[in-house]
Structure formats: C-alpha cells, structure tokens
Design goal:
heterodimer; A: about 260 residues; 11 helices; globular; B: about 350 residues; mainly alpha; MetI-like fold; binds adenosine-5'-diphosphate; binds magnesium ion
C-alpha cells in the first residue's frame, strides 16, 4: 500500500531563483517524517515538489529525481494530475470549498472529477474519511451545512478528511497546526499517529515538540544566508536528530539557539 | 479607622476625560428647525423655494458653530465635515429626484393595460401602446446578453486562469480597455456595416441591434468577470489541484461557482447599462409601429427608440404621442430598477453558503 519516496539531487527553482539545492533523502513508507528548519529555508517548497504542486506557480520548475517506489514523478510521460491523486496534501491554512457542504467537501476529490458513485458508497466514503479525521462525531448531524461554518480546527480536519477520502498513498502536510489552538493541535497529532498505519506522512512543522512527538524521522533544512538556496542539512531517526545530531547547526537550531 | 478601597476620582483628570458634549438630540432638532423655517418662509411668501432651501441650509450651520463653542475644535471639525458630506449627498440627489419625479408624474398616468398590450400599428392620435417596443427591448437585450456573456466570460477566464500576464493577455486587456471607450454610435455603425455585407444597403434587423449592444457589453462583462475571478482565493485552486483535479475542471467546478454571484451581478449591471442605448439601434434596428418577434428579419423598435420618436416626431396633435414617450421612459426606468433588484437578489442567494 503506502509507498516510500527517494529523492536524489533535487534542485528547485522559482524562475531563475534557486530556492532549494541538492536534496538527497529517503522517506520511508508508513511512517511520519518531519521537516524542520528556519523560515524561508525551503521546507514548503520541497514539500510541494513531492507531489508536483510546485509547478503550479508560474515559472517554477525542478531538476533531479523524485522516485516513489521506484517510479520517477518527473519523468517526461508523467501526468502531474495523476501524481497528485496518489500524493495528497494538506495546507497550512484550512481551505474548505466555500460553495460546498461538509458532505460535498469530503467527497470533493470524487465530485470535482465527476466520478460516479452510488449513494451508499458515497455515504460510506464520507463516514470513513470523517472518522479517520476524527471529525465524524462533531459533524454527523450537520453534513449538509456549509464547510466554512466550522471552527478553524474542524476545518483543518475537514481538509484532512477530504485528502484521505481519495485514498492517496502519501499525505503531505504543510504546517497543518500552525493556525490552530492547542486542543485542535493535539487532536490532529493523534490523528497523524493513526493515519501512519495506512499512509506515508510528511509533515512540515515549526514546532520542535511537535516534530519530536509525532515523527519517526526528522529532516533539518537550513539556509546559508539571505538569497542563498536552502539545503537539507541532515536527516535521520527523530531520537538521533534530537539527542545526538551530527551537524552542530542542527543542534543549535533544536536547542533554540537560532532560527 | 476605615480604609476606603474606592478612590475618589481626581477632579482634574475627570474633567479632562469627561466630554463637553452637545445634547444628542441637537443635530436632529437643528435640522428639523431649519426645514420648518424654510417651509414657513416659502408659505408666508417672502422667499422662493430655491431661496428657502439655501436659507435652511445656512441655518444648519448653527450645529458646527455651537459645537465649536461647546465641544472644541476636534468635534467641531467632525460636525463640519459631516455637514459638508451630507450637503454634497443632498446635492447629488437633486437631479436623480427631479428626474424620477418628472418621469413618474408624466409617465405614471400612461401605465394601463392597453399601454402594455397594444402596439402602435394603425394608431393615430390617442390610444396604442408600447407592446412592440417592450418586445423589441427584451428580445434585443436578451440576444445581446447571449452573445456577449460567453465571449466576455471566456475572455475573463483566459485572462485570469490561463493568460497570467503573458503577452497575449496584456494585448487583450489593452484592447478591452479601448473597447470600453467606443462611442455607442460607432458600435451601431459597426453592426450596420457588418450586416450590410450580408443583406445589402439599408438593412434593418433586430439581431444587428443585438450585435451593436453586444459590442458595448463585452468589455463591461470582461472587466466585471475578471475582477470576480481574481477575488477567488488561490488556495481554493490549489486545494482542487492537490486532489488531482485537472485545471479545466477546477475552473468549471471550483472557481466559477465561487465567483458566480459576482459574475451574475456584473452581467446584470452590464445589461442595465446597455438597455437604454438609443443611437446604435436607430441605425441598425430601425423603427416600426408593429410587433416583431423575429430578430432575424425586419425592423424592431425598442423603448428608447420609441421614446425618441414619440417625443421628437409626435405628429398632430402632439400630446398623446409625447405622453406615450414619457410612459415608455418610465417603463424603461422600472426595468432597469428591477434588473438592479434581481442582481442584488442573485448575489444574495448565490453567494457561498455560510458567508451570508
Ligand atoms: N511563489 C514563490 N515565488 C518566488 N519565490 C518563492 C515563492 N514561494 C517561496 N519562495 C522563496 O523560496 C524560498 C523558500 O520558501 P519556503 O519554501 O516558503 O520556505 P519555508 O516553508 O521553509 O518557510 C524563500 O526564499 C522564498 O522567498
Ligand atoms: Mg512554509
């Protein structure tokens, strides 16, 4: 089921600007990998290059390889639309579709692609996705209410439900808790724990404790200076990165001495 | 010995913070007083209405002056500017009010069943109605909408979703700006020249009028739709892309539904803008006294053209024809107002759920 990702020599550009340089990393299947690092070092950029969302921005492109179970996502005959069906994404700010009900938001992946579904099948998908996102109990009586009427934390879980409803292999999350209160945050962290039995999860976070709590592996990105490209400094098991990192910059960042 | 927990307010500080304020009823009282004084002076005789209005307006300056004395500079400035803004608003309402009053008083008596259901065919003198012009206005405007909305909407979609500031889209934007400035008579000449190619000199046909109006509508529709599409947050597009939805489906199923209320409002206002056009229709749609339901052959009269001819060439005796002109003008104003109401209702009912 869930798939691993192998990235080799990946350079990521915005037009002529090299934003992230020379990333080599392996992200194991069915585990949680956290990206940490100071603002502007290219965590979001790198994350978005993993499901080809990066190239949605005008002039943005990459070179290098991203292999998912051995298949290169950037091979010439790859369709980015299909790549994104395989690799789902949750954004920093919750973005439910304002024109849709909660029910339709969960099924957005199917509905927007005009996939035919039987009513019972659709109901099952909605319930399963909302249960996985830990939102079922809160919204089961108001599935036809608009998604934008939920609280921020609920909206973010709705977005997670929407992402898992299309049954991707990999789930990318870009600071999914940064706009949320501590209670919603802990709900989502529990959720990540449960989801990793089925999905490969990659999460960007600014919060060291969160990285330590939820992730199995951690990758530290850093920036040599303003205008310089971001780089992957080191990656490995989370316990090791947090207790005994190889690179002094990692240690300094984790102990809060900069960034 | 008792300690008081509650400190007595320091007198200086209290005086400073408390406001020296005019009683809240005073502005209304001064306004009512000024109006009454104006009315009294006109009724009693010494002043004309215009003079009385000016006197009443001068009297309202009692408020800023009183404020200056009692409340001090900041509040006085506030009241002065409030008075100026309100005066400007009143001034701007005068033409609107007088047009409405005139059209309603002269056109109102014309509105009856016959007026709406009879054409002018074989009518001399009194009687007859605007049925043919009403039909013409509705058909020509509807056809103009059918032509211009797809062109305008697709152009806007290209500009916002696909063009993204490339050379072609910059050219389109420039040309749309130029088109906005086309005088309506030129649009009429264009439509005439176009139809002459197919039907020969002297052609008069309803669809030609629709084409002329469409030329005027397209830039308005493009602009309105472009603004509305730009307002759709990029996050919604990204959310759809991240679910593996192709771009065209994202545009059709996410961007357009999110922007639909604004688009419909913009289109309605564009219709309201061209429905009163006269000049281009004089050239290409012509004038007739008969009902014509066929856009593709023969002349077709619209309300503005009907009004123009009723007033300009009333025949003898002129009264009945001129009255019908006023009636038609009133009907046109009512249609435009209804369109504005429809636009509001639509933007209310189509706006994304939960954000009303
Ligand atoms: N849309 C964009 N266009 C151009 N440059 C961008 C864009 N988004 C991000 N960048 C640049 O890429 C670099 C990495 O940004 P980002 O990936 O957002 O960092 P992080 O998520 O680690 O804070 C920054 O220098 C930023 O200015
Ligand atoms: Mg970021």
């Amino acid at each position: 089921m869930a798939k691993s990702i192998d990235v080799s020599d990946l350079n990521i550009y915005y037009g002529d600007f090299l934003a992230v340089e020379g990333v080599n990393i392996t992200i194991p299947a069915k585990s949680v990998t956290a990206f940490i690092g100071p603002s502007g070092c290219g965590k979001s950029t790198f994350l978005r290059s993993l499901n080809r969302m990066h190239e949605v921005i005008k002039g943005a492109h990459v070179d290098g390889k991203v292999l998912v179970d051995g298949t290169d996502l950037y091979a010439a005959d790859m369709d980015p639309v299909n790549v994104r069906r395989l690799i789902g994404m949750v954004f920093q700010r919750p973005n439910p579709f304002p024109t849709m009900s909660i029910y339709d938001n969960v099924l957005a992946g199917q509905k927007l692609n005009s996939k035919k579904m039987k009513k019972s099948e659709a109901d099952d998908t909605v319930e399963r996705a909302l249960r996985q996102a830990g939102l079922w109990a809160e919204v089961k009586d108001r599935l036809n209410r608009p998604g934008s009427g939920l609280s921020g934390g609920q909206q973010q879980r709705l977005c997670i439900a929407r992402a898992v409803a299309v049954q991707p292999e990999i789930l990318l999350m870009d600071e999914p808790c940064s706009a949320l209160d501590p209670i919603s945050t802990s709900v989502i962290e529990d959720l990540i724990h449960e989801l990793k039995t089925e999905y490969t999860i990659v999460i960007v976070t600014h919060n060291m404790q969160q990285a330590a709590r939820v992730s199995d592996d951690t990758a530290f990105f850093n920036l040599a200076g303003v205008g310089q490209p971001g780089k992957l400094v080191e990656s490995g098991r989370t316990e090791k990165i947090f207790s005994n990192p190889d690179n002094p910059a990692t240690e300094a960042y984790i102990q809060g001495r900069f960034g | 010995m008792t300690t008081t927990l509650q400190r007595t307010p320091e007198p200086d500080l209290q005086r400073e913070l408390q406001e020296h304020q005019l009683p809240t009823y005073l502005p209304k009282a001064i306004l009512v007083g000024a109006v009454l004084a104006g009315v009294a002076l006109t009724v009693a005789g010494p002043l004309s209405i215009a003079q009385a209005v000016i006197v009443a307006w001068l009297l309202t300056w009692a408020l800023p002056i009183a404020s200056r004395v009692v409340e001090g500079g900041r509040k006085a400035a506030d009241r002065t500017v409030t008075l100026l803004v309100a005066s400007a608003f009143g001034l701007a309402l005068i033409p609107l009010g007088s047009i409405l009053a005139l059209v309603i008083s002269r056109g109102g008596p014309q509105l009856n069943a016959e007026f709406f259901t009879y054409s002018m065919r074989n009518v001399v003198g009194e009687g007859g109605g605007i049925y043919h012009a009403l039909v013409g206005t509705l058909l020509i405007t509807a056809a103009a909408t059918v032509i211009s909305v797809p062109i305008g909407l697709f152009t806007a979609i290209y500009l916002v979703e696909y063009g993204a500031g490339n050379r072609l889209s910059r050219w389109i934007t420039f040309l749309v700006d130029v088109m906005t400035g086309i005088p309506s008579i030129v649009a009429g000449l264009f439509a005439y020249a176009l139809f002459v190619i197919f039907f020969g000199e002297g052609v008069r046909v309803g669809i030609g009028g629709a084409v002329a109006l469409a030329v005027l509508m397209v830039p308005i529709v493009v602009r309105a739709c472009e603004e509305m599409l730009k307002l759709v947050p990029n996050e919604l597009r990204e959310a759809a892309f991240a679910l593996g939805v192709p771009k065209w489906r994202t545009v059709v199923k996410v961007v357009l539904p999110t922007a639909i209320s604004g688009i419909v409002t913009g289109v309605t206002l564009a219709i309201a803008r061209v429905i009163g056009e006269t000049a281009p229709l004089l050239i290409i749609a012509g004038l007739t006294d008969s009902v014509n339901f066929n856009l593709f052959s023969e002349r077709m009269t619209t309300l503005p053209v009907f009004t123009y001819f009723s007033v300009k060439f009333p025949g003898v005796p002129p009264e009945a024809s001129i009255d019908r002109g006023w009636g038609a003008a009133l009907v046109l104003i009512i249609i435009v107002m209804l369109l504005n109401l429809v636009a509001r209702a639509v933007s209310y009912f189509f706006s994304p759920k939960g954000e009303r």
